[in-house]
Amino acid sequence: MELSERKEKILRAIVDDYIMSAEPVGSAYILENHELGVSSATVRNEMAALEEAGYLEKPHTSSGRVPSVLGYRTYVNSLMKEYSLTLNEMAHIRNALAHQYMEFDKALSSISEIVSFLTNYTAVFTTPVSSKYNIRQIKLISVDPQSFVMIVVLNEGVVKNRTMRVKKPYEAEVLDKLSNYLNNKFAGINLNALTDDILDEEKALVPVESYILDMIFDFISELAKDTEDYNIVCSGTTNIFNHPEFNDINKTKDFLNFVRSGNSGEIKEILKKASSNAEPSVIMGDDNPLLKEHGLSMVVSDYSLGNDLKGKMAIVGPTRMDYAKVISTLNYMSQHIKGLIGETDENTDK
After folding, report:
1. Cα separation of 274 and 284, whole Å?
2. 113 partner at 20 to 30 Å CA-CA among 90, 158, 259, 279?
3. pTM for the whole thing?
4. Residue 111 shares a structural domain with residue 208
């Protein structure tokens, strides 16, 4: 259903009001607080049409309406007005980023706390990982008929090696041919690009016994995963108590367990699947079953430190989230966090 300009205005008004009040929005409230230039009957009819089209929902205990996931998605994509951070909010962020010589983990914790404070939601940051490691050379050096050393030379002067013992004797020329093949395939490749699926595809093309190949490709996979090894820094988990959707103690416990288990995989998996984008992306509803189960949305953005270190930052909160403020906060943080190490980008606002 293509929304008319009037329906868009009414939907925007309902989402804005519901975000602020957490109470179902009725036609009388809209007319009182928004200059729409139409009658109450027209507003009621338009609200009924929006509900029928799936943009609004009507709680059983109220005559008002609340946005559906479709309503929120439409609002975020095309109806939401841009939020401008106040001078005080920008100052808070710049102050958190000013401690360039602080131990980095402490600095990231401080930044996370400021973001959770400013948004009144839970802030999640990943510690940055390096994207600089490319494979320069792979060497397979025979030790005896049933063992060899695998050496992987990376740029930046990094060398990784492992001694491998196989269950059956091998021909020395197999290692020479395999070394040449691996160098032709992987020399110059960034480790971050070598996913398990890609490595499995390459391994299937090599006519060498699996008892040799498995160990070699497992080692490459481990090196690739090492570059993605990061921790989660989380702040503002108790902010959830400020939102009436989580007045139920069991729902709150579920949320706290979900957030505090960040390093065990659930949040990491969501962040891993989130698109890498300069602009924040909004995950809600069917975008992620786990978030939907908890009644949550997540806004995710990338951040960079210098030219090499990259991470993700996210805000987690109820689906009734102030998306405009959250997105503006993450955008501002993304622009300015680059200066945490090295020089600040000359093009960022002071």
Report:
1. 12
2. 279
3. 0.74
4. no
Q: Which band of pLDDT confidence, cut at 50, 70 and 90, is reported for residue 117? A: very high
CA 324, 330, 335, 339 dihedral sign is positive
Q: Which CATH number fits the domain that encloses residue 287?
A: 3.30.450.40
Measured between its terminal Cα atoms, the distance across the chain in Å is 44
Same-domain check for residues 39 and 162: no
* Each residue's pLDDT tens digit, 238-268: 999 999 999 999 999 999 988 887 656 788 8
User: What are the pLDDT digits (tens) for 299-337?
Assistant: 999 988 766 778 899 999 999 999 999 999 999 999 888
DSSP states of 278-299 as a string? SS-EEE-GGG-HHHHHHTEEEE
pLDDT at 59: 87
pLDDT at residue 83, as a whole number: 96
CATH number at residue 66: 1.10.10.10
Please, which contacts does 266-269 make with residues 24 or more away whose CB atoms are closer than 8 Å? 266/290, 267/124, 267/232, 268/126, 268/232
Quick check: helix, strand or coil at residue 224? Answer: helix
CATH number for the domain that contains residue 215 = 3.30.390.60
Domain stop point among 197, 226, 255: 226
> Per-residue DSSP letters for 30-95?
HHHHS---S-HHHHHHHHHHHHHTTSEE--TT-SSBEE-HHHHHHIIIIIPPPPPPPHHHHHHHHH
The proportion of the chain whose per-residue pLDDT surpasses 90, expressed as a percent, equals: 61
Please say whether the beta carbons of 123 and 116 come within 8 A.
yes
- Is 246 found in the same domain as 100? yes
Q: Specify the pLDDT at position 343.
A: 42
- Tally DSSP H helices, then E strands, for the chain: 13, 11
Domain membership of residue 346 (yes or no) is: no
Question: Structure tokens of 251?
Answer: 């729902």
Residue 66 lies in a domain: yes
CA angle at 299 for the pair 15 and 276, rounded to the nearest 5°: 140
Structural domain range at position 184: 135-226
